[in-house]
Every structure is written in C-alpha cells, then in structure tokens.
Amino acid sequence: MKFLRIPGLILFILLFAAIFVYFQHMRTEKYEGLDLIPERTEDIPLYSGLEADSPVYKIKGDHWDEILNFYEHALPQNGWNLIMKQASSDPAEDGAGFISNWEKEGRKWVLSISASYFRNTDQTEVTFDKTEPLKAAKWINSDVPEVCINEQPERSEDCFKMTDRKTIDRIGEMINQAPEAGGHQLFYKNKSTIEFGDLKIMVYYDLEKGIYFVSDKGTKWMKPEREFFELTRISKEY
Prior knowledge:
The chain has helices at about 1-30, 65-75, 165-175, 225-230, and strands at about 50-55, 55-60, 80-85, 95-105, 110-120, 125-130, 145-150, 160, 190-195, 200-205, 210-215, 220. With about 240 residues, the chain is an alpha+beta fold. The strands form two sheets. It has a six-stranded antiparallel β-sheet with strand order 1-2-6-5-4-3. A six-stranded antiparallel β-sheet has the order 8-7-9-10-11-12, covered by helices on one side.
C-alpha cells in the first residue's frame, strides 16, 4: 500500500507545483509593463477595488471622480504636493476623467495619476506613471513700464493699464514660476489676456480648478492662486 501512495503523492506535488507556477505567471503578467506599482510603495496608496491589468489598473463602474477625491486627500498626507490637475468639464461624456501631477521632496521624478471611465466596458481605467519633472520656463525677461489686462477679450478690445511696479513684477514672477502644462490640456471656460510689452498671454481660468497661460512660448498651468486673481483683477469675484 505504501508503494501505491508514492505515485499519488508525486502527482499531488506536481499538480500543486503547476498551479503555483500558473498563478505566479498570472500575477507577474498583470504587472508586466507597469511603470509604477502602488502596492509596492509606502507613500502611494491604492484606491480600494482597483486591480492591476497591465498597462493600467481597472475597476468596474464609473469611479473616476471618487478616485480623484481619494488621491487629493491621501497623497498630501504622504508628503506629495499637487502641481497640476485637470478634470473633464462634462463628467457624463464617454472617456471622462482626470489627470494630475504630484511632486515630493527628494524625488527626482513626478508622479502622474490619470483616470478615465469608458461606457462600452463599464470600467474606470487608472494609470500610474513616473514622469520627468515639469519645467518652469521664464517667459518674462525684461521690465515693462506697464501691462495691459483685458478681462473679457471676446466682448471688447479695451484693457486697463497697470503701472504699479511691484504688482507687475509679482504677476510676472508668478507666471514665470508656473510649470509647463504638458500634453493633457483642457482649457477652462473663463478667458482673459495679459500683455507684457510684445508678449500676449491668453489666460484660461477656473476659480476652483486652476489657470492656464498660453502664449507663443508655450502653455503653462498654475493652481487657482487667490493672489493672482487679486493682483490681476481678471475676475469680478476679487
């Protein structure tokens, strides 16, 4: 009887090994090609329900807005600072979602998290990436005696001229410090212009979401800084 048990034991071991190898392969395959794996980090939490399915993470249903809110609260608690965020203006459209970039002291790369909901699969897909740090190109290099600000360029060509040296310098400093926007750009509805001499800057803004600066030099993005709105007076809210 002992001799009969040995083949059975060997078969059981081989079957167990095959199952183990299979699941290890499946586990490796779902993470293959992922630039960043939150489960293997200490400071990037994973939203509950997300499952790796290379090259993205997926969850059933429309959750992109909840995922955005989750990371806006969780990442700052882990030392991350938001440097850029853009969300779809129409949450009901197919492919609606967001992209956000985060930086942390001591990291030589920028954390990029984006998510989109697709109706045909009824899934929200999330991507975690390491990207190059966003650069803050200097647009305004020389002193100008005045700047011309048009609150509503689509209604009128008139602008008010600002001559206060301290205010002009601060506005220029904030624009210079704003990082390049990158490739994901959905400009906000509100629009104004600021002219520094020959440099005309289109300003697309949302008082809660952010500010885009667009000129011949490129595109920048900045948080909706209260100081900028107060200095430029481009919004009647300030």
